[in-house]
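I am still learning, so would you mind making up any protein sequence you like and the tokens describing how it folds?
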Amino acid sequence: MKKLLLVLVVTMLFASCGINKDVHKKTVNDLKKSQLLYKKEHIKTKKLIAACKSLQKDIKVLKADMMKLLNEKMNLKKEKEVLNQKFLDTLELLDTLKAELTSKGSNLEALEAKQKELSAERQKMQAEKQHLLEQLARLKKAAELRNQEFQKIMGSLQKMIDAGTLTVTIRKGRMIVSLSSDILFPSGRTTLTDDGKAAIAELSATLSTLDNRAFLVVGHSDSSPIRTKRYPSNWELSSQRAIEVVRLMVENEVKPEMLTAGGAAEFDPLVDNDTLENKAQNRRVEIIFLPKIDELPGFDSIKKEAAKKESPQQTQPAPAVVPQEKKAKKPVVTPQKK
């Protein structure tokens, strides 16, 4: 601006001094060009100033971002240091644990082997548990059947029980039907009385209806000794009385293969033989209901073991069996001890 004023002043001076017209015109043109150039430079300057201000703003923003990044970097550095310390602590802990495992003689392979062993043992126990549950279910079913059988027998023999002819008890885990020898036999004799025959016949009518059941018929005496040619002791007397009862039961359609006879003499008393009443109570014949083999606990295991021991192969055919006529099984006398 100052240059422009200076040029105008110089021009006016030249004009007043009588400067040449061409020179004056040229000077004016140069002045106009200078003005245009000035305007252009002024516009550029404004643009540069605006650009500079914009750059300053950007720089300010970048500085703020840079400070933020520096803070984040510092925070990350601190976090890294914390993590590194935790990592070192973890390594130290692992070393301690490894040392403890080594000192105790343990290692990962041993633990895995133990785990497999425990898993196999668990499976075995589960299988045994399932087997026991199945066995328990069978025993429960068998017990229910025995109870039904007991109720059926009690119902059939209730008349004889009420009359005092016999008693039905559970002793030593077995059901026992007991008949007094004083009703069945005369004193010191083995011939059944009429009342005894009637009682055995009525009892046999019930027992003959039971399928797959075995009975042990046992004669019992009191402690009074007997010494005759036929009965040297109570063993022979009690056994022969049991045999006589078995014979009559067979005659009354009880299958002979269901029966076994034996004598216990005076060695299985119900009460002490210290009074006449107690001696009368001990003189008796008992029909013992023998348990079925498949009702016994562990029968399935025994059956499986027996099957394993049997040879699966047979090199020679079994000899032919010639059918023979079946004969009635004779009662067996089996003396028993107390």
Q: What stands out?
A: Residues 314-338 have pLDDT under 50 and may be disordered. The beta strands are 166-171, 174-180, 214-220, 259-265, 284-290, 333-335. DSSP finds eight helices and six strands in the chain. Residues 243 and 261 are 6 Å apart (CA to CA).
